[in-house]
Amino acid sequence: MHIRQLTLKSCGIPTSIWARLFILVALLEVLAIICIEGYVIKRTVDIYKSGTESLWGFGLQNASNSMTITQESFIVYDVIFIVAQLFLLMLCWEAVAHKNTIQIIAATLFNIMCLVYSLIQYTTFYIHPSASAGIFQKDNDMRILQATTMAVYSLCSVAFAVLTWELYQMFGWKTFKKLGANLALRRAYKWHQILLTLLKLDIFFFISYSVQLATLVLRVSDPETWVQIGVVIPGSVVFLVMAFWALRVENRRMMIVVIVCLGCSPAYFIYKLVRMNVGIDKNNDPYLDTRKYLTFFIVVTFALILVTVYVSVRCYRNFGIGLKEAIADYDTRKAQLKASRARRGSANDTANDSAFEYTDVHERFVLD
């Protein structure tokens, strides 16, 4: 039985130096952020061990607030950084492997959002520190780590921006040549790709917001906690999966449900913004240390939802013009070509690889 050698090309990474540099920057950033945030978590645990334990034995008592601040309240933010980097690596890998210029741009913008999030964290700790963040004020290692995180994101954002420009020109031209002359299909496919990318971002931001809300703000005795954990989080995932499916099979009824529900969801985020800032008891403020972070996620998610609704309507209007059939036809021919190449054997594949190279799944209309 023939086993093909695992190479960058077999993993879908093009031979272009720009594409491989894009993935390299993403990998280096992931390793750097994971190492930094891992050490931040260690420093947080050490600071709590050396601090004055509260009466409950699992956190520090805030002198100006009746709430107890646990180390988990800060570790959650560091975990979000790590998860965000893994999500970014997935975006970058998939975008480059599929020559998807839209997702390449989205990955670059996502990295900038991570930079903004790191700025918010540094501000909360050292520029305008919250009451509970005061326990980190005298720890110089923590300050250096926070500054290093911002520096890494800043440098990588510049690198991503430069590489995105190069990849956009390279992949954009190849896509233009391969998609054929059917302008209606090309426009429909563009909106199709934009919606797929937006739905991926929606999943990350909404789940991240919900996890922060459920773990840092809501309490076990609060019914909203269980609604958030048991209904909202899994419900949102199921709903967004429905959106993916409706787009794939061009199901009009399901897409209408998606558009209506997405259109109503901004009301929830407006309600949360009001609740976070109006009528809060200063002596028992559950949002004391999370208000900036939650506001950031609410604003980003709110904007993403509005754009998603608009793009969903555009995709709905393109249902029935032949896009689904063109994609299914290409998938069939691509599978047949892969099977044919597998039967030829490694020697022939190596000798004639360029002659049998097929276009990527995101450039489906080359055979039209």
Automatic annotation (TrEMBL):
Any one cellular-component term (Gene Ontology): Golgi apparatus
PANTHER family, sorted: UPF0658 GOLGI APPARATUS MEMBRANE PROTEIN C1952.10C-RELATED
Assigned keywords, A-Z: Membrane, Transmembrane, Transmembrane helix
UniProt entry tagged with the keyword Transmembrane helix: yes
Biological classification of the source: Eukaryota, Fungi, Fungi incertae sedis, Zoopagomycota, Kickxellomycotina
Transmembrane parts of this sequence: 21-41, 74-92, 104-124, 144-168, 194-214, 226-247, 254-274, 294-313
Name this polypeptide is given: Uncharacterized protein
Residue ranges of coiled coil: none
Keyword Magnesium listed: no
